[in-house]
Amino acid sequence: MKVFTTLLALLMFSLRAYGQEKKAPNTFPTYQQIKPASKEIIDYAPAQGKSFTTLQSDLFNYPENSVTYVLNAQPTKDKKYVKDILKRKDIEIETILIERPDADGKRRIIINFSPR
């Protein structure tokens, strides 16, 4: 009887060990599944305690003469002028609004900023 019990216990433990060798599907998400999209808005909290949002978008990647930029209620179509304004370190951009194109395919990009 001891031999039968020992064999039975050995058989049970070996089946249990074999059952654990099978890999379970990995349910933990991969980096590719959780990484942010390239045009996603990302919030940061700087050291001063202020919060701001960075927008990763190309404001100048639209066809020629299809965009009117409105800088503090002043319209312009000059991309170079807008780029120069946005590169300045002495301004703080408050809002950027990219409107949907109208029936003619033209859109407005409204940028409000203030001096620092």
Short synopsis of the structure:
By secondary structure, the chain is α+β, with helices and mostly antiparallel strands.
Please give a structural write-up.
Helices cover 28% and strands 27% of the residues. By secondary structure, it is of the alpha+beta class. It has one domain (31-115). The model has no long low-confidence stretch (mean pLDDT 78).
Which helices and strands, and how do they pair?
Elements: H1 2-21, H2 31-34, E1 42-44, E2 52-54, E3 67-71, E4 74-76, H3 79-87, E5 91-98, E6 107-115
Parallel strand pairs: 3-6
Antiparallel strand pairs: 1-2, 3-4, 5-6
Number of strands: 6
Q: How much strand content do the residues show? A: 25-35%
Count every helix, treating DSSP H or I runs of 4 or more residues as helices. Answer: 3
Number of domains: 1
Poorly predicted spans = none
Task: Please identify the structural class as seen in this structure.
Answer: alpha+beta
What's the N-to-C terminus distance?
Answer: 90 Å
What is the average per-residue confidence, as pLDDT, rounded to a whole number?
A: 78
- The backbone outline, from C-alpha atoms, is rod-shaped
Largest sheet, in brief, is:
4 strands, mixed
Radius of gyration: 30 Å
Order of helices and strands: HHEEEEHEE
**Order of strands, widest sheet:** 4-3-6-5
Helix content: 25-40%
